[in-house]
């Protein structure tokens, strides 16, 4: 029967279809239901997934250092077990899922690669992602966030999917990442040098990202100095008069040193106003934060904006929110991976700097970081380097399959060498003395058996 041939349906069947349509959502992301259930999901209907430790791959250096986890197996099974052991315990999730470009050997679904000619390509990808993101949401702390790398093929669908799962109100940012430069563009019409990274919070009200400290010492606009330079640093002049949110209380007469009356914008009324109120201006004059200058017989009044103090003379680090336009090149990721592991599987692994950027948005040095598309192991490498830089105790959990032996020969090899130290092409990299446990997914054949095996599996 074709999709539009309903002539053989009974009245009851047709009524049920109508009722189903009435109950269906009228707005949102819709995709075709699976024609063939995903095998890894069907497997757990009668079996309980568990993790079994491979003890001869354990690396132990110090009881006082973090113990990181590497899980070999399908990530749906890994996430199912983690929902028993780590629900509400993850601060940061970063994933780099298949981009679903339709290219050969990219997105594997039910043991077959999905190519560009598959009419259900997008629906399969959405079903695949929906199941995993729902499990991942449960793992996040209420103050946690997830970061997902993606490109133009699925960015629109992924954002709608995340809005459905995490809530539109928990959208944080769509980062735009410059990922390459120069030749080798993959578009015949426009040179595409960017991809994206979506960020959603578990609960936006509880998420608090760190801010970027500004390098004011190297900022050339701070070029003037006065008697306060030792404490306040250098300064630049900022016009007290500005065109912004108008307020009558900020629109008043200022008297210049020679008695001339000055008004914001040269007159009373919108759109100009002063940046400071009268009491603060009086304080600023008394404490040498205000400069009057006369040019072409016209007076101007300026604020001294100092390097190391705020406008109440309090010491502070100048900070701004991180920007959503970022640059971390794939070429850097390839170089970083190939310096540690000889491999030919990963052509464009994500650079360490991208994951460090996500890590640095969290002020705590003891966060737990999950990557359930771990692949080349960049996330693990980034967490280790972050800990090395500031003596942090962040922990990573990496989940990846072992297709083409990637978990054993790339992921495990990479993180174990970084932990134990390795000789790179140009220098010797010292050990980062932390610990690692290696697990494989498996099953309890009888779903009614108790879950003791997975409930204690992560104790360290």
Automatic annotation (TrEMBL):
Where on the tree of life does the source sit, at the highest rank? Bacteria
Q: Which GO terms describe its molecular function?
A: DNA binding; N-methyltransferase activity; site-specific DNA-methyltransferase (adenine-specific) activity
Transferase is among the record's keywords: yes
Q: Which residues form the DNA methylase N-4/N-6 domain?
A: 90-398
Q: Provide the alphabetized UniProt keywords.
A: Methyltransferase, S-adenosyl-L-methionine, Transferase
The EC number of this protein is 2.1.1.72
From the UniProt record, list the reaction(s) this protein catalyses.
a 2'-deoxyadenosine in DNA + S-adenosyl-L-methionine = an N(6)-methyl-2'-deoxyadenosine in DNA + S-adenosyl-L-homocysteine + H(+)
Q: Name one GO biological process term.
A: methylation
Q: Which family does it belong to?
A: Belongs to the N(4)/N(6)-methyltransferase family.
What is this protein called in UniProt? site-specific DNA-methyltransferase (adenine-specific)
Q: Which organism is it from?
A: Aquiflexum gelatinilyticum
């Amino acid at each position: 029967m074709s999709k539009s041939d309903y002539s053989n349906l009974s009245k009851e069947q047709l009524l049920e279809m109508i009722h189903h349509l009435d109950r269906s959502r009228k707005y949102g992301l819709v995709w075709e239901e699976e024609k063939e259930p995903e095998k890894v999901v069907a497997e757990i209907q009668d079996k309980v997934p568990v993790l079994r430790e491979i003890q001869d791959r354990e690396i132990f250096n110090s009881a006082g250092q973090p113990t990181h986890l590497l899980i070999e197996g399908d990530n749906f099974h890994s996430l199912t077990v983690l929902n028993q052991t780590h629900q509400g315990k993850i601060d940061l999730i970063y994933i780099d899922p298949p981009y679903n470009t339709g290219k050969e050997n990219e997105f594997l679904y039910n043991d077959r690669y999905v190519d560009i000619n598959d009419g259900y390509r997008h629906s399969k990808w959405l079903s695949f992602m929906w199941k995993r993101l729902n499990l991942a949401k449960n793992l996040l702390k209420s103050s946690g966030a997830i970061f997902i790398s993606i490109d133009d093929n699925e960015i629109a669908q992924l954002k709608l999917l995340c809005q459905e799962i995490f809530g539109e109100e928990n959208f944080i940012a769509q980062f735009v990442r410059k990922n390459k430069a120069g030749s080798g563009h993959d578009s015949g019409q426009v040179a595409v040098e960017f991809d994206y990274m979506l960020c959603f919070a578990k609960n936006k009200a509880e998420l608090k990202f760190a801010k970027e400290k500004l390098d004011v010492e190297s900022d050339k606009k701070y070029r003037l100095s006065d008697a306060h330079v030792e404490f306040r640093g250098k300064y630049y002049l900022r016009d007290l008069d500005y065109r912004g949110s108008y307020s009558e209380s900020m629109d008043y007469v200022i008297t210049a040193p020679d008695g001339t009356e000055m008004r914001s914008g040269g007159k009373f009324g919108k759109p100009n106003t002063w940046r400071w109120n009268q009491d603060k201006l009086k304080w600023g004059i008394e404490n040498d934060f205000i400069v009057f200058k006369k040019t072409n017989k016209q007076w101007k009044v300026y604020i001294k904006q100092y390097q190391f103090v705020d406008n109440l003379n309090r010491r502070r680090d100048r900070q701004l929110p991180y920007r959503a336009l970022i640059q971390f090149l794939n070429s850097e990721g390839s170089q970083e991976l190939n310096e540690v592991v000889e491999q030919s599987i990963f052509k464009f692994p994500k650079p360490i700097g991208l994951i460090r950027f996500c890590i640095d948005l969290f002020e705590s040095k003891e966060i737990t970081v999950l990557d359930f598309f771990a692949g080349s192991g960049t996330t693990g490498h980034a967490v280790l380097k972050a800990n090395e830089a500031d003596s942090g105790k962040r922990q990573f959990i990496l989940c990846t399959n072992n297709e083409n032996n990637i978990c054993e020969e790339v992921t495990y090899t990479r993180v174990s060498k970084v932990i134990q130290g390795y000789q790179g092409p140009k220098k010797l990299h010292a050990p980062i003395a932390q610990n690692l446990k290696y697990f494989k997914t498996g099953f309890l054949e009888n779903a009614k058996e108790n879950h003791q095996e997975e409930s204690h599996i992560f104790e360290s």
